[in-house]
Amino acid sequence: MRVELLAGNNIKKRIKMIAAAGKLSRTKGDVFEVLDSCEVYEKNLGLVKAILGMGHKSIMEHDYFVFAIGDVTPIIEQTIIGYRLTSFTIKSGRETNFKSAGHYTPTFKDKDNNLVANQQELVDRYNSHMDMLFDEYENYINKGVKEEDARFVLPYSFLTNIIMGCNAHELERMINEFLYGKLSKIDEIKKFGEELLKIVSSKAPYLTPHINGNGYQLDDWYDKYRIGGDIKTYDKVRLVSSTPHIDEKIILSTIMYHEQVTEEQAKKILKRMQKSNPNIMAELMNEIKYSNEQRELEQVNFQFEIPISLIVLKHLTRHRMHSLLVPSFVPMWDLSNYQTPPSIKKIDLEHYQELQKINLEEYQYFKSLGIRDEDLIYFYLCGTFTNVVTTMNGRSLEWISRMRCCNKAQWEIRNIANEMVRQVKEVAPVYGTCLGASCEAFLTCPEGRESCGKVKVLRGEK
Length: 462
Hints:
- By secondary structure, this protein is an alpha+beta fold.
- Among the domains are: 2-71 and 161-220, Gyrase A, domain 2, CATH 3.30.1360; 244-297, no CATH class.
- 46% of the residues lie in helices and 12% in strands.
- It has helices at 11-24, 31-36, 41-53, 74-81, 119-142, 147-150, 168-180, 187-203, 246-259, 263-276, 280-290, 310-317, 342-368, 394-404, 411-427, 438-442, 454-459; strands at 2-7, 64-72, 86-90, 160-167, 238-242, 301-309, 323-325, 385-393.
- The strands form 2 sheets. Strands 1-2-4-3 form a 4-stranded antiparallel sheet.
- The chain is globular, with a radius of gyration of 26 Å.
- The chain starts with a strand and ends with a helix.
């Protein structure tokens, strides 16, 4: 693991900016006069610490950092993507060959955090198993399977690289969670938190007093309620619930917005409009669809159950404006639930299934030795299924469908998005005209030279 600070090194300039933000609300003069009064670094740092000590942490959001994060596993990747106020660029798993990426090897411990016996023997066996899975990944590529499908046999121990940007407030929350929260039981995540803290200690000294673990629970509070039993993957994507009368709700919202009337008055106005123009709802929805803000679409919500593979989960997680519930990596999920790429089904389904069985047996062997789940999570394969639940508003769903229903999208997330759209269109046909790939909903394509060409067909072009 290697973590370096790319942006945010000019500590005096950054502290001046934060101090000015802290002084602005209660100091005479305009913003530029306040900035001019913040010229002494030591005074600025003292002021920032004092303001934060009073609990006014919003000023930290003016401080921003960019990190280069090298040689970490998707465990780190998926964890930090879940922080909604961060920005990421991640090495593509669809178009990158990970054969030489390397893998992470944990130190195997028992439930009491003690090293288990025969450590080197276990490490050798684990590494041999991981090497085998990487060899199988390469074999699939040599057989003509694309990287994006071959990666489904890769273990979740493979190493990847990330550029991450976040403000200091979010960074403080992340480090506290990684060092003191339930995620700290995973050694790799705790090590990542320690690396971030090293940088913060020298580059943002005002933060360190607030990285103390106060309020962070090491144990999962739900453990005492858990009833156990087998956790099965959802059969399919399902629309669990939604705002009643979606189409009408959106149109009434736009009338209330523009006419400054109550909902009851808006209903009367809509009835009058429909008498003179039976297609008014469709026409108004079309105007909303092409507007810049689309705030009316945010007035309706949808909740979905989604079965999804681990490697594709990040395609959904990185859409920030929805409330996604992803299970913790521990307790371990059922490794016998997994996604099978269609291309692998055609080439050698039985061998793929055998690899899943071998991986499950190897995990069970390590588990039988009393090794804690936090060290066994690297036996997850990229194709391992998990269940997620998410709630999103109409604008977020519209944006997700633009990106993920596209023919250029990865096939699993495309199938998920298409099914979400299909089910929503059944309950909201007028709003449904806003959904789908950009070419279908807007007759435009953002892919440029890489366009699949469907938009030309839909436009009736040659």
